[in-house]
Amino acid sequence: MTRVHERGARPGKVLVVGLGNPDRGDDGIGAAVAQALVGRLPPDAAVKVRRGDLLALIQDWEGFEAIVCIDAAAPMGVPGRICRVDLNSTALPRNLSFTSSHALGLPEAIELARSLQLAPRQIIVYAIEGASFDSGAPLTPAVAAAAQLAADQVVAEVGQLRCSTPEAAFDA
Amino acid sequence: MATKTLRVDYLTRVEGEGALDLEISDGRVTSAQLRIFEPPRFFEAFLRGRGYAETPDIVARICGICPIAYQMSAVHAIENAFGVTVDGPLRALRRLIYCGEWIESHALHVIMLHAPDFLGFPDAIQMAREHGNMVRNGLTLKKAGNELIRVLGGREVHPVNVKAGGFYRVPSRAELVPVTESLTHARELAIDLVRWVAAFTFPQFERDYEFVALRHPDEYPFNEGRLVSNRDIDIGITEYETQFEERQVAHSTALHSMIKRRGAYLVGPLARYALNFDCLPDSVQALARECGLGPVCRNPFKSIIVRALEIVYACEEALRLIAAYEPPALAAVPITPHAGTGFGCTEAPRGLCWHRYDFDAEGTIRAARIVPPTSQNQPSIEADLTALATTILDQPDEVIRDRCEQTIRNFDPCISCSAHFLKLSVHRT
After folding, report:
1. ipTM of the predicted structure?
2. Which residue of A52, A112, A118 is in closest CB contact with B124?
């Protein structure tokens, strides 16, 4: 569900998607990073927030050359730790245990999109380790503190992706 | 005595958390228990002390797949209690948003959850490698349904634009134009989907269900009608509790609904279809006949065909409603609360969704009762499992497990709604 802001960028460029439910504690980190990106990305980059229906996410990707997904990862002892995964070179580690309780999580959505040849050429995932996913809870301090750092990394990532896409010359 | 236990510890491709235990003793199925262990969600208790106006937004949270069903049953119950009638374009808009929910919910289940069972794939991801076009079409259908819900409900999941008396805001005709285009395409995809699923191989298995559904004299039911069965039930929705009761069972956090005099019954697509075939447009009836279905289907595995037919119907009905739409002068009929009891019953994608609320003079809820479709179907699911497993006891455990899971998915159970659900254990002795 697009929620915070949805800025149009013509297909062919970069889409940044913050995933998760802001009403479930640290699951809201994807939306928090998206919010922190407001005004910091070039006009041809789109930002979306999706909180539940990852099947719809696959169709969000249609026409984009690259996507950056930001999602919460299950607790593994270091809340706020940012893990960057380039799916062109690395498989999404199953032990990241993304936190969707729905049948289709991010790894499955990416696998399905690839089966259907709907996946963008480049997919970068930022998984941010959470600590608490309680209903109605805010981000925990360590995870909230990671939002700005993750946003800085995504801004730099988008810049590099725009330069590395085949149509990089479009209006960089 | 030879006893064997087959267990599915966690059912997949259903909404929510549950398991199945099958007990086989001396070559006979002695018990089939659908164990719903999703924690109780206490929605009926949450509603006590809340104002009537808050109800549609609270009950929408019961389910992320079928929130419209809960909202619609709730607003009809509120209006029933306060003596308000919603008709004309507002009534049409309610049917229209319900069309969106049937399209997105049925498309998700038919293609992403149920079809892999018939084609021998473990999931839709594996199926997509060989049947990519159909999976893409499924995503397009789901998107069309979601779009309709977004335009009318404000957003796709847990919509926020439904209120007692109507809507907070109604769309202009121009806002519905893009939806018309996507629905016209969706209708063609849905017809292809019906023909695709109708060509699957189906187990020769039928049961003599007591079908229960709403029946309206003029239309295939969404929001209104009498409660009827293929036996002797023909009552107003206010009389539901005279014929039906919920029972607590030890193995499930969801209540089991029964017909007081007879026991298990079936709600959902097979029941709606059998009791309302004559209300389907000629085009949908003809498509059903082309696929080998008569006016009644008792093979639960063929529910996948009926769901696909209902997608076609929902697309056609939505297009009809949009073509006839003229925006109403008021987005909602004014409501003045008073003390009383109200009843609402509508057709969720999975079947009847019945609500009752007791209000005080200010319209505050004093008591609430919500009966979701999966609670009503649980006894029939267990009866189907017993009957089905009995026919395949000579098969390896893995085959029994797979077929039992498919049997459960015939019902498109929404465990989250019913617990307000699945692991399978087979016990052989």
Report:
1. 0.74
2. A112
